[in-house]
């Protein structure tokens, strides 16, 4: 699968369930894109309000903290435009309402490429297949096709908000079992690790191990991609949507 050349891409929208998902799955790639002058926007469906360890905060306080952490993490890879949808962590379903909300953001942002979670369960590793990730991935693919491009789908978006239909050209899925594209992120891996470390409420209890763990799986990706020893890579399943 050959994805669009980045030279033909002006805007990329990343849609994830939780603060930190993009940083585990795609922040090295995001940094590569922003370095090329490509506009990247994050849409984060929940505030991750059910996350954290040894908590003293209630869910409202956690939501506020996690938005701040994601905003800082985004800044470290060149992203300053974040849209938080405010859904409740742990309860996301691929409803018509979620499809409409993601379609709204797609029509506002008008991306060439969308990056989101795989809606399929990964039977090799269970963590990428959190139910919220699968729900967001499914709703995002449905928003890409057919909702956002069909002016007669969710007609209120056009009638009430003036949002014209928009056709996304391709989708990249993270966390699946069937990657068909690898991005060499050796040049940006340090910034990816730095972005991950901005999620202090999530990783403080594993701070020592997180960098080793992340570099380990990125190095394994690079090996699968046939890159030289010492390289790091992020993997995606590219889906044509034209
Ligand atoms: Zn997540």
UniProtKB/TrEMBL annotation:
The keyword Zinc applies. One of its GO terms (biological process) is glycoside metabolic process. Pfam families: PIG-L (PF02585). Keywords: Zinc. GO terms for molecular function: hydrolase activity, acting on carbon-nitrogen (but not peptide) bonds, in linear amides. The keyword Zinc applies. This is LmbE family N-acetylglucosaminyl deacetylase. The lineage of its organism: Bacteria, Bacillati, Actinomycetota, Actinomycetes, Streptosporangiales.
